[in-house]
Design brief:
Elements (H helix, E strand, L loop, with lengths): L1 H16 L1 H13 L4 H12 L4 E4 L6 H12 L3 E5 L6 H5 E6 L4 E6 L6 E5 L6 H13 L1 E4 L2 E4 L5 E6 L12 H4 L4 E4 L5 H12 L12 H12 L5 H15 L13 E3 L3 H17 L7 H12 L4 E2 L1 H5 L4 H11 L4
Parallel strand pairs: 1-8, 1-9, 2-5, 5-8
Antiparallel strand pairs: 3-4, 6-7, 10-11
Helix pairs in contact: 2-4, 3-11, 10-11, 11-12, 12-14
């Protein structure tokens, strides 16, 4: 009974604390038409301190979305265009010798910011990708002998283009795992695109107002951690992840030969964190199975290694996740 009272109290607190979410969505909606899933994913990443990998064809407002969010939260924003000739120093910075002072000093790179858009991350070689991924994981950068902390909040949104594979360096599986979510961005609907065209040919392009400070996001992250997650929901999350590793134990024998490897413990952690953030966005103080199901595809789609057999039978990781959600018992 005490637990129920606590959850009710927590629910009321989180409903109050999460009121800014609707304000962010309203400001984003002035600039971004449609793409609700993209906006939700950005908020989940921001509130649970995770990074996002976006896949979609050019021109779907990916850059505009993170730029708008940066102006709403009043943080610094860097866009880095990844190209084959990019070097790690172009991201993290380098040591420069000053003849006047006769000493080296550090010139910090564009990674020293709050929001980073890594555009077309798969266009750069592995050493550049790994420099970014180290910063994502450790939240710090080493230049020369000194280690520098990156500012908080720190969010990386990397994009990759699914249509051009020539001249690209696909991200290794172990590195892709560093991204909390992999979000597939689709074309807008007919009516939405009509509004997008109208907005872009008007005299003035709408602007979002600054309504938050970086500290508000850091405080909100602590509140998200307080969202209640029941033991039954924890088991549900683990069942879903374990079904990607041992499908035969969950009556999914047909996938046993199609999966080379399943989700890592990072998948379980991220699924729990994203579910909490999703509940927070929905202004609820506790996680329900629908929250887990809502974020499941984005958290797991890049964490299931498909075998040649799956590719031969045209089975995607999306199909496997959908089947797992339909099979694993919901608490």
């Amino acid at each position: 009974m005490n637990e129920t009272v606590d959850v009710k109290e927590l629910n009321d607190r989180i409903e109050k604390e999460s009121s800014f979410v609707d304000m962010i969505k309203m400001e984003m909606g002035k600039v971004i038409i449609g793409q609700k899933h993209l906006i939700d994913s950005l908020l989940i990443g921001l509130l649970s301190d995770g990074h996002i990998l976006l896949e979609g064809v050019p021109g779907l407002a990916k850059t505009l979305a993170i730029n708008t969010l940066a102006s709403i939260v009043d943080v610094n924003f860097s866009r880095i265009q990844f190209t084959p000739d990019l070097l790690p120093a172009d991201l993290v910075g380098t040591m420069i010798y000053s003849q006047k002072k006769e000493e080296f000093h550090v010139k910090k790179g564009p990674l020293f910011t709050n929001f980073v858009l890594a555009d077309e991350i798969n266009r750069s070689p592995a050493k550049v990708q790994s420099a970014l991924l180290e910063a994502m994981q450790e939240r710090q950068v080493t230049i020369g002998e000194e280690t520098y902390q990156l500012p908080q909040p720190f969010l990386v949104m990397a994009t990759q283009n699914p249509i051009e594979q020539e001249g690209t360096y696909p991200l290794p599986e172990a590195q892709v795992d560093r991204f909390m979510l992999k979000v597939v961005v689709d074309y807008p609907k007919f009516e939405e695109e009509k509004l997008i065209v109208r907005e872009n040919i008007a005299k003035e392009f709408p602007k979002a107002n600054t309504i938050l400070k970086p500290q508000n996001i850091i405080d909100a992250r602590n509140v998200v951690k307080d969202v209640y997650i029941d033991e039954k929901i924890e088991r549900y999350i683990l069942d879903i992840v374990f079904a990607t590793r041992f499908p035969e134990k969950y009556n999914l024998e047909k996938f046993a030969s199609m999966i080379n490897y399943g989700g890592s413990p990072r998948a379980s952690i991220n699924l729990a964190m994203a579910s909490k953030a999703y509940a927070f966005i929905k202004r609820r103080g506790y996680v329900i199975p629908e929250d887990v199901r809502a974020v499941c595809h984005d958290v797991l789609r890049h964490r299931i290694g498909l075998s040649y057999e799956a590719e031969a039978e045209n089975v995607s990781s999306e199909d496997i996740i959908t089947e797992i959600l339909n099979t694993v018992e919901v608490p």
